Every structure is written in structure tokens, then in C-alpha cells.
Please model this.
Amino acid sequence: MAKSKASSNGLYTFLPIPIAPWIDISMDFVLGLPRTHNERDSIFVVMDRFSKMTHIIPCHKTDDAFHIANLLFGEVVRLHGLPKSILLRCFVGKNLKTLETWLLHIDFAFNRVVNKTISYIPFELVYGCNLLSPLDLVSFPISSKANHECLSKTQSMVSLDERAKMFLERQGKRYVERVNTDKEGRVYAKGDLVWIHLQKERFPTLRKSKLLPRGAGPFPVLKRINHNAYVLDIPQEYGGMGDLNLRINSFQEGESDTNKGE
Model:
């Protein structure tokens, strides 16, 4: 059966805007890199979704959830506290066998330059100022050591936070408009009949062979979780996983189901 060429239904929606540094974070993994002298072959990347400050942590590709949790606590929670939400993402890339040696420098350099999304420097949003680099120590005037009043500093950081939120919202809206140009918004109500795409990851027993159907249905909608996710009444033989993202087609009485198995 031919592979479906139809684009996914539903519009792109961005995540809620964080309200403070290191409350909402995202995690990426760069896997399968050349082994370093300490036998590390992967990178664990943790980013604050508000300030975009990032920690780049060497790890092993074979590290399990227990080891990753220890890394998260030792490198992130120890410094910033426990986050309220974690977004797990995916990232791939290449580097040299000396990557572990350079990670601390990459971490520092990434956090002290302007981030495109928020138009600010991550260090400024988290600490209230940009940290010095070795190049800054070449010329260190006495005037730069002057201290500011606590109230002025607090007001400055509050102003930075508000402007960062504004830039996050503006950038998110621009991205939504660009991504949704060719997408079709579609909302299903409780009781609507829909066809589902049988993804191998969600339905492994039903996709053992390429000759098996790629779709199934129609199934009734039980509940709408959000604009792009629904709970369907799926029979137990399908695995009983009824929470699905919006890659489903509506069912119309009398229409041909020839292409619904795509």
C-alpha cells in the first residue's frame, strides 16, 4: 500500500510562555558522537525556555533514566532548583573527539550572546548582568566596578523579564503564522467518526509488515484534549491507547474508504 502523502491536519500551536527563569526547561540529546578521552560519546543539553540559558553536559549514549536524572540534578537542579515542567526534545549533530574538552567553553559562549527569540542575553535575564569573558579582562577600567542601587537593579531585571516575555510572544506568533500558512485548521466534536494513521511506534503489532494497512477506523471521538489531540474509542486489540495527536481524517457516510488505509 502506498505511503500517505497527505499533510497532517491541525494548526501549529506554541507552548505557553514561561514566567520566570528555570521554571520551564527543555532537554535535548546529541547522540552517537566520537568517543572522548573519558569515554563520553553523547551530549545532554538542558535549556531554560524563558532566558534560553543552556547547560551542555557530556554523557554516554547508553545512560539510562537513572543516570540522566542524576546528571540533571547535579548540573541543573543544584544551581537553579527543580523545574515545574520539562520538555524532552531531540537534537543531532557532529563534533570532534575533543568535544568534552570544549563543552564548558561552548556552554559559556552560548549563554553570553543575544538569543534571537528573546532578543536578550541569557546571562542578563538570569543574573541581571552579562558575565565577563577572558577577553574582558584585557582592559578592566575602574569605573566598570561601580555598584548600582538594589532597587534600581531589581527594577532593571523586572523590565528585562517583561520585555523578554514580549519578544517570546511576538516570535511565537510569527512562527505560528509562517508554519500555518499551508495548514488546515480542523476541530472534531464528541461523537464524530474519524480514521487514524497507524504509526509503527504506537501500534507495533499492527505494523509488522509493510503490506498491512496504514490506517484504521472509523472510530468515535470521546473527548478533545486540545486543538491537536483527542481521545478516541479504540478497541482493545489496537493496544488500548486512545490519546492521539491530530493526524486523523473525518469519516463521511457513503464515501469510498479506498485511501483511508494510507
The radius of gyration is 24 Å.
